[in-house]
Amino acid sequence: MVKNGWRERVNSMTGSWIDAHCHLADQRLAADIEQVIEHSRHQGVTSWVQGGVGPRDWERQQKLRKRFGKSVLPSFGLHPWWVTNHSEAEIDSALHQLHQLLPSRSSHAVAIGEIGLDLHPKRLRHPNAFTKQLRAFEAELRLAKQVRLPVIIHSVRSDHHILDALTRLGPFPNGGLIHSFSGTVSHGLAFIERGFHLSLSGAQLSSAKRLRSYAELPIDQIVIETDAPDQLPRGWGGGLNEPANLLRIANAWANTWQTTGAMLLDNGRIILEALFALPTIHSPITPNPVSSPDPASHDRKA
């Protein structure tokens, strides 16, 4: 069983939330996937937007969709790590597969992703890493416009390059998400100006400075993700991350806007339903600022 050592009782009036980004098709979850899904639903997280990695991952996503139904929301794209580790010929082959897959309604894709750039030094050790990543990213952006799908963007140390590509190739009327956003407020506002929402994960919760500064970002452009099985927040125990941790992550972010985690997730569902053209089950909610104890605050570290 995947370990995370924590469980919170759902006490929202809705409690039917969407994890804005996770990887249920990750092979590290395969042996426990039924327990992961059950635990997630028990915590009120009933739908999961996927992050695509490469062709084999796309196949696994489709199998999960058949197994667990419409709550698994597939997204197909070439993750920049996958691009970095593959040859130009393999990238071209995968892009060709993507062009064939996405126009088909049977793919059930809600977005193109997870695509983008990762300029962490350990990625740049690979030959031509940036050139390959940028070429694949721009090809996928063009495809997104062609098939009229949102995009889910991975940006590590590359926000200015991402913004440049979005400016040159845009506009993108179907918008998208900046996955696990960790940039500056000015970059966040620039993404929002280009029609993108910011998806916040638990990876940034150890930064008290970021928790304070993000209050300048508009709450109605924010969604919450786990990025499971990765990005288990620091100090939350060992093992893998799970979608069941979504409310706890939201609670940790909520004080930034003086609201509650449940309210962040309620409004996140409204954003995601509109962005990905999902069936709407809630009426729009205007968040009223609420001061409430944060059960995860003891885990934060400056």
Properties at a glance:
38% helix; alpha/beta; 9 strands; globular; three-stranded parallel β-sheet; 11 helices; TIM Barrel
**Estimated structural class:** alpha/beta
How is the CATH topology named?
TIM Barrel
Task: Name the CATH superfamily classification.
Answer: Metal-dependent hydrolases
Oligomeric assembly: single chain
**Order of strands, widest sheet:** 4-5-6-7-8-9
Total E-strand runs: 9
Order of helices and strands: EHEHEEHHEHHEHEHEHEHH
Q: Which helices and strands, and how do they pair?
A:
Elements: E1 17-22, H1 33-42, E2 45-50, H2 55-68, E3 72-73, E4 75-76, H3 80-84, H4 88-101, E5 111-118, H5 121-124, H6 129-147, E6 151-156, H7 159-169, E7 176-179, H8 185-193, E8 196-200, H9 208-213, E9 222-224, H10 246-254, H11 261-275
Parallel strand pairs: 1-2, 2-3, 4-5, 5-6, 6-7, 7-8, 8-9
Summed up:
This protein is an alpha/beta fold and 302 residues long.
Description:
Mean pLDDT is 89; it is low at 1-13 and 282-302. Strands 4-5-6-7-8-9 form a 6-stranded parallel β-sheet, sandwiched between helices. A 3-stranded parallel β-sheet has the order 1-2-3. It has one domain (22-278): TIM Barrel. 38% of the residues lie in helices and 14% in strands. The protein is α/β, with parallel strands linked by helices and 302 residues long. The protein contains 11 helices and 9 strands. It is globular, with a radius of gyration of 18 Å. The two termini are 31 Å apart.
